[in-house]
Specification:
Elements (H helix, E strand, L loop, with lengths): L2 H11 L7 H6 L2 E3 L7 H19 L8 E3 L7 H20 L2 E12 L21 E6 L10 E5 L12 E3 L2 E2 L9 H10 L3 E5 L6 E5 L4 E2 L9 E10 L29 H31 L5
Antiparallel strand pairs: 1-9, 2-3, 3-11, 4-9, 4-11, 5-8, 5-10, 6-7
Helix pairs in contact: 3-4
Length: 298
């Protein structure tokens, strides 16, 4: 089963009214209403913003084009509070099915002398049913790396051709998903245009990972981001965010080709890995103990 058909099954099993399926694919970027966050969640985000600024100002965890937070559990309460308000909104207004969070990225974009990687026009090339949420943790204007996407005459985002649809069709994209020349031609011949998303602290938006997009270079200032990725699921999870099924920079950004591998499978997989680790440790200690008892002159 591919991701689209699994998504349709998720919608069939959803217990609430479902939004337009056509709109999901034809309007792949949504600006989140400014009143979505409660006072309590804004307090969590504010504290998170202050803490991150201190850390990133000191240049921690430099991985090339970004400074990153490797241990996202340090911000567990903030992420949970945000997720409990944002994800139900996406379920009811965009997806029409249950969701869970499989990825969290927390990072600061770095000034670059030459554009590369995510600063080039690209798409992520996970299935179209995978959506990311970006929350700005500081004010963002045209000078400090606003998110930019390609739009049509109706200002709706343009999806690139996805080459990862499910177990039977899972291929790497041409040119690693980079689309500089293609975008140049689309702007020239299709009357498409680029749009930048600027806004105050805690501006949030959701977009299909295959929308044609890029980051912009830092001219002055900085940009700190909370990036949340969601996946459809038939079975509603007990929590949206959980370390048993939510990872970060420590693992690949490609989703599993099988859409039916969801949060429940991740729990079982993690339990197996933890038990295997314990068994290895016990065996290692026993081998060391036996080795000490063997006479050295044998």
């Amino acid at each position: 089963m591919d991701y689209k058909n699994y998504f349709l099954k998720c919608r069939e099993r959803y217990e609430k009214p479902t939004p337009s399926l056509k709109s999901f694919y034809e309007d792949p970027l949504r600006i989140i209403p400014k009143n979505i966050f409660s006072i309590k969640t804004k307090e969590y985000l504010e504290n998170m913003s202050i803490s991150l600024k201190k850390e990133f100002d000191n240049g921690i965890n430099d991985i090339g084009t970004m400074h990153v937070i490797k241990n996202i559990l340090r911000y567990k309460k903030s992420i949970e509070s945000v997720s409990n308000e944002l994800i139900p909104y996406l379920e009811e207004t965009m997806y029409g099915c249950n969701l869970y969070i499989d990825k969290i990225y927390i990072y600061r974009t770095k000034p670059l002398k030459k554009k590369k990687e995510s600063y080039l026009w690209h798409h992520d090339n996970n299935p179209n049913e995978i959506v990311k949420l970006i929350i700005y943790l500081n004010d963002v204007d045209i000078f400090n790396s606003p998110f930019e996407y390609l739009a049509n005459e109706s200002n709706k985002g343009i999806l690139a051709q996805c080459t990862r649809l499910g177990p039977d069709y899972w291929e790497a994209p041409p040119n690693d998903g980079r689309l500089e020349k293609e975008v140049e031609d689309m702007i020239k011949f299709n009357n498409y245009h680029n749009k930048k998303i600027t806004g105050d602290k805690f501006t949030a938006f959701a977009f299909s990972n295959n929308i044609i997009h890029r980051a912009n270079p830092i001219i002055k200032g900085y940009r700190d981001v909370l990036n949340i990725r969601v996946k459809p699921t038939i079975n509603k999870p007990p929590q949206y965010f959980n370390s048993n099924w939510t990872s970060s920079f420590e693992s690949s950004g490609a989703v599993n080709p099988n859409p039916m591998i969801d949060w429940q499978n991740e729990i079982n997989s993690n339990i197996f890995k933890k038990n295997l680790s314990k068994i290895k440790k016990v065996l290692s200690n026993k081998i060391k103990s036996i080795s000490k008892k063997i006479p050295s002159n044998l």
